Amino acid sequence: MNQPLAPIRLLDLAAEHAALQPALDDAVRETLAEAAFIQGPAVGQFAAELGAYLGGARVVPCANGTDALTLALLSLDLPAGAEVIVPAFTYVATLEAAALLGLRPVLADVRPDTFNLDPVAVAAALTPRTGAIIAVHLFGQCADLAALGALADRRGVALIEDNAQALGATYRLADGATAYAGTVGTVGTTSFFPSKNLGALGDGGALLTRDPARAALLQQLANHGQSAKYCHQRIGLNSRLDTLQAALLRVKLRQLPANTAARQAVAARYDGALAAVPGLAVPARDPRSSHVFHQYTVTLATPAHRDALRAHLHQHGVPTMVYYPLPVHQQPAYAYLGYRAGQFPVAERLCETVLSLPMHPLLTVEQAEYIGAAVKRF
Ligand SMILES: *Cc1c(COP(=O)(O)O)cnc(C)c1O
């Protein structure tokens, strides 16, 4: 087998940005000339454009995806110590926001096929103290919003969608209508961390909602709880999206639909190459959700298989990553929650058996086929 012409990367932001260089340069130049670095016009323009892309949702930009989670929780006015149900298999930010606000993260296990919150585990974790459920749309596919939304409604608790990884994914609701990820629950959050599907050239984040009153409250909370200049209605955060990042994100947003299609084309190649490989499961699809492939994550039969495949691919010039190597309940910072090893068997097993293959919009079909062939030869 021949080596592919270009080296394979996990991510190729330099090349993605080189293709947009003139427009990015213009955005920087205009921002410097206007010199309205905080809450400049590009912030509102970007929010309106992203909202239009997301089917008319209200978008409230903020400083990063972790702040977006904090702001979403703040907007719910939960009593101190209220419980927030979060998946046991996620990035730590999902718990961190709740913990910092004096709320209690309560973990629920995920499904082994979709990696997303298991509604059966969530139902078992609900108590009279539950204030919110945070569903994470992990790796680019929506969690079971139908079941989680029904549970949240029945118990009168909020459903937050942590949509840092699935911006642009769509979900078919029970009534047959289609909605964008992040706009289905009480409030959605997203991140523009550079490696996300829509990445800034630094930190950024946003809140998504269909409710104008909640959008106004979130806007206030993200700006020191300020309702009018020097009138502070609530204790809020200083969490704003820089004008410069908004201007750059406006350029990158135009590319998002094509980038998503490119990711999906790579995923289809991977599926074709890997569907029949024994001991390896390709990412499961929920027929109600589209998948925007923030990651293409396979599952191996055993931890030893996973580690050996990783080493084999590395030898063949194919970088891979493990998202996430340690479940959140086994992180030292969350030992105080009192969970034991073995309590979330699916999350624990996934940490030992998942492997994410290279996935970015500039990965070529030839590279995807080379990677597929390298996996098959293992
Ligand atoms: C990236 C990410 C976040 C945090 O976003 P930041 O912008 O880095 O603060 C939160 N949740 C999930 C699932 C993420 O992937």
**Poorly predicted regions:** none
Radius of gyration from the alpha-carbon trace, in angstroms: 21 Å
Could you say what the CATH architecture of the largest domain is? 3-Layer(aba) Sandwich
Structural class: alpha/beta
Summarize the structure.
The chain has 378 residues and is of the alpha/beta class.
Q: Explain this structure to me?
A:
- InterPro entries: DegT/StrS_aminotransferase, PyrdxlP-dep_Trfase, PyrdxlP-dep_Trfase_major, PyrdxlP-dep_Trfase_small.
- Keywords: Pyridoxal phosphate.
- This is dTDP-4-amino-4,6-dideoxygalactose transaminase.
- Belongs to the DegT/DnrJ/EryC1 family.
- This protein has 378 residues and is of the alpha/beta class.
- It has two domains: 15-253, Aspartate Aminotransferase, domain 2 (3-Layer(aba) Sandwich); 255-377, Aspartate Aminotransferase, domain 1 (Alpha-Beta Complex).
- Helices cover 38% and strands 16% of the residues.
- A hairpin with a 5-residue loop joins β6 (170-172) and β7 (178-180).
- It is globular, with a radius of gyration of 21 Å.
- It starts with 12 loop residues before the first helix and ends with a helix.
- The site of pyridoxal-5'-phosphate has 15 residues, from α4 and α5.
